[in-house]
Amino acid sequence: MQNNAKNFFSKLGLDTRLLGMIGALVVLWIVFDVITGGRFLTPRNLFNLSVQTASVAVMATGMVFVIVTRNIDLSVGSMLGFIGMVVAALQVQVLPDMLGLGNPMIWIIGVLAAISLGAMLGAFQGWIIGYLTVPAFIVTLGGFLVYRGAMWWVTEGQTQAPLDATFRLLGGGAEGTLGVTLSWAFGVISAVAAVALMLMSRRRKAGHGFTVKPIWAEGILMGLAAGLILCFVWVMNSYPIAKGAMKRIAKADGIELTEGMVWYHGVAIPVVILLVVTVGMTIVASRTRFGRYVYATGGNPEAAELSGINTRLLTVKIFALMGALTGIASIIASARLNAVDVGLGTLDELRVIAAAVIGGTALSGGFGTIYGAVIGALIMQSLQSGMASVGVDAPLQSIVVGIVLVFAVWIDIVYRRRTGQ
Amino acid sequence: MDKQTPLVEMKNMGISFGGVHAVDDVSVDLYPGEVVGLLGHNGAGKSTLIKMLSGAYQGTGDIYVNGEKVEIHNPRDARKHNIETIYQTLALADNLDAAANLFLGRELMTPAGTLDDDAMEAETRKIMGRLNPNFQKFSSPVSALSGGQRQSVAIARAVYFNARILIMDEPTAALGPQETQMVAELIQQLKAEGIGIFLIDHDVHAVLELCDRASVMKNGKLVGTVNIPDVTDDDLLSMIILGKKPGEKAAG
Ligand SMILES: Nc1ncnc2c1ncn2[C@@H]1O[C@H](COP(=O)(O)OP(=O)(O)O)[C@@H](O)[C@H]1O
Ligand SMILES: [Mg+2]
Prior knowledge:
The structure holds two protein chains of two kinds. Chain A is mainly alpha-helical. Chain A has 17 helices and no strands. Chain A has helices spanning 2-12, 16-35, 43-68, 76-99, 105-130, 136-155, 165-169, 179-207, 215-236, 243-253, 269-287, 289-299, 301-306, 311-337, 348-358, 370-390, 394-419. In chain A, helix 3 packs antiparallel against helix 14 (311-337) and helix 8 runs antiparallel to helix 9 (215-236). Chain A is globular. In chain B, strand 7 (165-169), helix 6 and strand 8 form a beta-alpha-beta unit. Chain B folds into two domains: 1-82 and 164-247, 3-Layer(aba) Sandwich (Rossmann fold); 91-162, no CATH class. Chain B has helices at 46-53, 75-80, 98-102, 117-131, 147-160, 177-192, 204-210, 233-242, and strands at residues 8-17, 20-30, 35-39, 60-65, 68-70, 83-86, 165-169, 196-200, 213-218, 221-227. By secondary structure, chain B is α/β, with parallel strands linked by helices. Chain B is built from eight helices and ten strands. In chain B, strands 6-7-8-3-9-10 form a six-stranded mixed beta sheet, with helices on both faces. Chain B has a four-stranded antiparallel beta sheet with strand order 2-1-4-5, with helices on one face. At the A-B interface, helix 8, helix 11, helix 12 and helix 13 of A face helix 2 and helix 4 of B.
């Protein structure tokens, strides 16, 4: 029986680590759902969970490359705060005077400013690490302090709010979703694309005469992928928008509200951003030279150099990418709160590192997947939201998260030893 | 052979690490279709000397390829001159599979500009089929391979890209007798194709069997270069151990 199951999963070609993480997530969800008497696995809670995970998960995908190359970035939380403050001040104090309140250019400038500021700060840190050979731990520890301090100077510590109305959509909320119809379209297109990619890869492999999975296994995987995507969309599309928000939206759009009318959220925009980032980073990791060099350098820096890879420049690029992703995360985090205070992003560096590590990224370098980091972020957030909804005190939450982190890495080490990685 | 231009000439090469002269005023050369052995104790400076040719280290001295002076500042420069190296440490990224290692730094790309892993695997299967027909672990990271299999991946990488100048730093260190024999046959075959080979080997007998000439190093200095047909194993051993060149032999 056990052997049959093993055989089945090995035919499917899913790696056991992925199955383990998904298993842990499912167990966590069921436990919280049982304890809260069914309040955890509701469309409302899952929607909030997806939005809360987005910012950390976006950064975690970049942290994978950082850690894979045996570096660390302790500055992302502070950098997120600093970028958030600069972009918020831009939206609140500078751009409205120049362009007029609510000008559609404001959110575009805000987004571009956040991403490019992040990329520049990251590239500068990467340059110090790669070319001046100061350890990443020290450089980003310095950055951690510098950005948090600089954030204060931007506005003398004043909270910046409210943000531009369009910019705010990037943080989710009742307005910041795709809505029901677009969500379905998004889901169907994603599902079709996933199936098409799997078919193409299979055809290519067979064309080279390599052995491919049995067709039934491929079919099950395609069904699973498409089913999961559509199921997610369905859940998001079942979360009704609260009456107050409906009135607000109806007023803004000039729609007449009638009695008994119900609107639903659909997939939140930050989640769409996260999915795009995840797919993009997965392609970078597995299909580009840059990604290949990241893993090669992590596996054996000397071998990478002897193969002609410019590992110093690579370090600059990796940290620039990490910075750009921190910029995106900063957009999501500030837009969600519709305000930036000096505490924005506090402790996020630890959440991001924990997400990457729980997701199977090895601190010794060379191993780590993008999807793993995203699932890691989801596990972390589920744990925290779940404990909050069960009514666990904040101090105890920290203790639990800390223990889970160490435990997860220990499991990972045992797993690696067993599989000889 | 004297009339030909050497494939490679390294003149007055030198490099120090923190005051230690790892290589001190060493000159060696290599002709097409020739195998030159580099001999010497551990720490004599053999690996360091050839690393200056492969672009891993920058030292002093001049390098000529086909009679023309070249600048080799990094491994890419060396590869441009068709210099391929099998490093003593193998220089494999343990977390990547054989194909990724073989093509590292020279990946095959699809027209869309993405990695063509399938084509790289197909090519790897071809070359491994020639060098090590028993090799089957194409989708495992090379950390899962035996010492001999890893070595054959490193050899395949050097051979695949049409080297004109091949540097082999102790290529048989991790190999059993049968695989060692296969490497010996490979060397003969590459030599017949007109490739020049620097062979670093611990085993004096392997050098006597495979090489045309041998350069012996001791404490970073060149003891001398001899024609293999003119020397016995005792001659070579005394060069290695005592640093003395057999009086009656002329350098090649
Ligand atoms: N990167 C380095 N840094 C410091 N010393 C080195 C380095 N590379 C080689 N050496 C030193 O140079 C000398 C020659 O080493 P090597 O070329 O590896 O010898 P061989 O290959 O002949 O055994 C040794 O003393 C070694 O310690
Ligand atoms: Mg050596």
